[in-house]
Amino acid sequence: MQPRSGIALVAHDSCKQDMVDWARFNRRTLSAHRLYATGTTGGRLIDEVGLSVTRLRSGPHGGDQQIGSRIAEGDVDLLIFFWDPLTAQPHEPDVRALLRLAVLSNIPVACNRATADFVISSPLLTGRDPWTPELVPA
Predict the structure, then answer these.
(1) In what residue span(s) does the MGS-like domain sit (predicted)?
(2) Number of independent structural domains in the chain
């Protein structure tokens, strides 16, 4: 990935607070990248975390498709999508299409906080080679 990656941040309603908490913890790292988010999630990240975010429509009103478009255009290198697997979503086809496009585009997708923590802390996010001597334990 480039030193300044495009990161898309999406969260279903029941996961928005978790996204805000995660983004607050990772604010410094996130602020070094281009951020895109769906409507309400983006608003909360701007208001509560102070991040600079390109805010798109809400997911059910086309925001998932807008994120997908940015993935297809090569503007998004990483998708952090905290989705609720226990609640049916009215825009489920859009959610599935977004996840399918991310997989087909071979970009990392984190669907929960544990995976997001691994991805955001990876040296690959900043373009550093993880196998350089200074990163490999002696």
Answers:
(1) 1-138
(2) 1
